[in-house]
Every structure is written in C-alpha cells, then in structure tokens.
Amino acid sequence: MKYHHIITFIIVTTSLIAKSSYPGLHIFTSSNDLSLGGSGLLYGSSISSKINPGVNFTDKIISTSLTKYPAQITSENIGVGFPFKKGSGSISIFHVTYGTFQGYNELAEKTSNYTSQDLSLRGSYSKLAKKLPLRFGFSTQLLRSSLSKLENYYISFSIGSIFILSKDNLKLGFSVHNLGKQLNDNFDMDNEVELAFSILKKLNYLPLQVFVDFSNKRESSSTEIFIGGCLSPKETIKINFGTSTRKLTQNTKQSLGKSILGNTGFGFSYKLSNAIINYGSFFYNNGVLIHSLGLEIPF
Predict the structure, then answer these.
(1) How many CB atoms lie under 10 A from the CB of residue 209?
(2) Is 160 exposed, middle or buried (0-12, 13-18, 19+ CB in 10 A)?
C-alpha cells in the first residue's frame, strides 16, 4: 500500500497516549497564536505553543514576543529556527509569569509575597522523508513550574507529520502533543495529551492561506475546531484572523457583541528591510481583549 508509512505512524503514536494541566504548555505564546485564534499548527513559528513538530524552517530566523494577559499574567518568549542536517530545527525559551500574591499562614496572618511562574526550554527537529512527500518531526520540552518556594519539573514530547500535496497547494498534518511525565511531585498537576489533525490550504485565486485544526484532548474526550486565515495583500503585509468552536461552547451570553466577537483573533505583520513586526490580539468571550507584540529577525 502506497501510504502505509503514514497509517503506521498514526497507529503507533495514538497507542502511546495515556493519562498524564500545566498552563505553560497550553497558553498562547506568540502574536500569531492570538491573531489566528488558536489555529495554525502548520504555521512555522519557533515561539508558538501550537505547532506541528514536522513544520519546516527554511531560513535562519530569530523570533521573540511579549503577550500581556489580565491579572498580571505575562508571556515572554524567544526562539530560533534554522536549517540543520538536511532538515530543520528550532530552540525556544518560554517564560510565563502569573503575578505576585500575598502570602498567609495557618492563622490567616499576612506573610511575605510570593510569585508563580513557568519557565521551559523546547527543542525540535524535522526532516523530509526520502521517497514520500512527507515531513516528520519531534520536539522535547522541559518545564519548570514554580509556586512560591515549591518547584515541579515536567518533561514532555510531541511528534508530528505533514503530508505535502504540492500540486494542490495543500498540506495535511497529524500530531500528538504533550506526551510527558512529571519528574517530581511538590504539588499536583495533570496534563492533557492532545491529538491534532491540521489542514493548510493556499488558495489559487486569492493571496490567502487557510488553516483548519481539529484538536482532541484525551481526558476531556471533546474535539475543538480552530479556523484561521493569513491574507497577503502585499509582499510586506500579512493580515491574520481566526476563531474556533469555543465561540459557541464558552459563550457567556452577556451581550450580542461579546457573543459575536468572543474567541476571535486578529492581527497583522509588517515586513521591514531587515525585520518583521508582528501584532496579535484576541477577544475572549467575557469581553477581555489581550494583545501581543512580536519581532522576527532573519540572519
């Protein structure tokens, strides 16, 4: 059978899934994550938390971003993607701070303040198969999650493949995310393993790339659909937008405006002579709007 390698890959990776949620593994970490509404697993960004490990980095590029969430939550990230040994690789550092909190003792008396944060390091590698239009890759991420003086360490692995249909300007991806193990147990945290099926289609008559991602988390056994697009009206400008089925499942029904705009992302990229500036925003169903700024520098 012509595509038996692909079928074998799906069967093997699915069998690896077991019960294993660290927010630092799921939070949006780049302006592209926000502006595409959570879609775009086949969009190549070394600082994206949502990426198929089979994605190819054709050029050397440094990426960084700063995302401000409500309640003092901040995401700061830096990464580099590069061609490597007939394939491509990436190295990324993610830092999420959840704010400073007032401490109390057993008698409800105030003590010193404490902080909570996640710091993680991720590396990835992908390569094109020799006789098939198929890219496959893997990534490893080591996470340190701290709460006051307590620290937990978690290591996770993700694997992915991308089937390339060049004549149709179409890519199909399958990936498994966050297969991992907690290395110590100073405080209890679970993590949901995620399966994703992704589609990237470049339209023939419009300068538009369309992203569709189906995501299923093992523990919740529910499937979410993320849809986004990247419009390129000029060579120097890209406009991103996206939404998901969370618009319906997380609808607070507080107002018509919040129901329409909820779980919607929007943003743009502007290419300078030696850098790319990215901006992304995301509107939550409760009316909260968050922003992210990013910078990409080829070298």
Answers:
(1) 21
(2) buried
* Size of the chain, expressed as the number of residues it contains: 299
Separation CA 67–CA 62 (nearest Å): 17
Tell me the fold of 4-298. Answer: Porin (2.40.160)
Contact 81, 71 (CB under 8 A): no
Q: Which helix (H) or strand (E) holds 151?
A: strand 150-165
Longest dimension (CA), the chain: 69
Sequence spans of domains, the chain: 4-298
CB proximity list for 96: less than 8 A, separation 6 or greater: 23, 24, 27, 29, 73, 74, 75, 76, 117, 118, 119
Question: 0.90 exceeded by the pTM?
Answer: no
> Which pLDDT score is estimated for 24?
63
**From CA 54, how far away is CA 198, in angstroms rounded?**
12
Token pair, residue 288, equals 């909260």
Confidence of residue 103 (pLDDT cuts 50, 70, 90): confident
Nearest to 55 by CA among 229, 214, 173: 173
Of the candidate ranges 128-132, 218-222, 245-249, the one whose mean pLDDT is the lowest:
218-222
Question: What is the Cα 118 distance to its own chain's centre?
Answer: 16
Structure tokens at 168: 């149709």
Whether 8 has a pLDDT exceeding 90, the answer reads no
Q: Which helix (H) or strand (E) holds 214?
A: strand 208-217
Counting Cα atoms < 13 Å in the Cβ hemisphere of 233 gives 5
The DSSP call for residue 104 is B
**Cα–Cα distance for residue pair 124/46, rounded to 1 Å:** 9
